[in-house]
Amino acid sequence: MIRTGARDEKISIARKFFKLLGTRNLLFLGIAGSVSYNPESDDDVDIFIITNAGKLWSTIIRAMVIRRIYRLEPICLSLCLDSISAKRMFDESSDFIVARDSLHVLPLYGDSYYNQLVRGSQLIMKFFPEEFNNIDTVTFPPGRSGPQDYALFLFSAVYLEVKGLLNNHRYETANEGENCFKTVLGFHRFYLDSVKYQKLRELYQEHGDMGA
User: Nearest CA to 25 among 116, 109, 118?
Assistant: First the structure.
């Protein structure tokens, strides 16, 4: 049974967050994770962001500031990529869970770009050929990364890495190890790979490659 009350409330929070964030350097923003399926009342609102190439970290910092100022605690920046990393992920990944979840994402902005990116990818062709649509992908001029973009990345990476370690320590101390996550950082990407997600991925792998 779909918990429409909890789902609608969390979608409303995500819409408020997007309205505050704006569209500068943004190609796509959507809702991923449990809210795109059937969330519990205490689930986070996992946000999936794709930005212009090289402009990821200015967007992430803006998003973190907005989240803090407006006390949007349920918002979780769980998957943030620039256009370079997004294209690479969907063309090079062989992860069934990524393919399945990408088709469940609820777009709030950049729907056309996202559909062409995902449904024209090798990942979807492998696992969900019925969803594959080989249309020309929208192209964007390459982003121009300046020294400030790299400085923002270095500053943010240290902060997020330390924050992740502290959060994991808190979870382990409270015997809530299932809530721990790995922080994956790079100039073109930032995402949180949770223990729950890792176990789900291992479960599918144990039952064989779904696309084989």
Answer: 109
pLDDT of residue 207: 55
> Could you tell me the sign of the dihedral formed by the alpha carbons of 28, 74, 178, 2, in that order?
negative
Q: Are 189 and 88 in contact (CB under 8 A)?
A: no
Asked if 106 and 36 count as a contact pair (C-beta separation under 8 A), the reply is: yes
Q: Which residues of the chain have pLDDT under 70?
A: 1-3, 134-143, 205-212
- DSSP lists the bridge partners of residue 76 as 46
Count CB neighbours of 101 within 10 A. Answer: 19
Strand partners, 94: none
CB 102 within 8 A of CB 124: yes
Q: Which of 12, 9, 7 is nearest to 39 (CA)?
A: 7
Could you give the CA distance from residue 105 to residue 81 in angstroms, rounded to a whole number? 15
Q: What per-residue confidence (pLDDT) applies to 136?
A: 60
How many CA within 13 A on the CB side of residue 163?
Answer: 11
Q: Provide the 10 A C-beta neighbour count for residue 135.
A: 10
**Domain boundary assignment for the chain:** 4-208
The pLDDT, as a whole number, for residue 146 is 81
**Three state DSSP letters for 184-205:** EEECCEEEEEEHHHHHHHHHHH
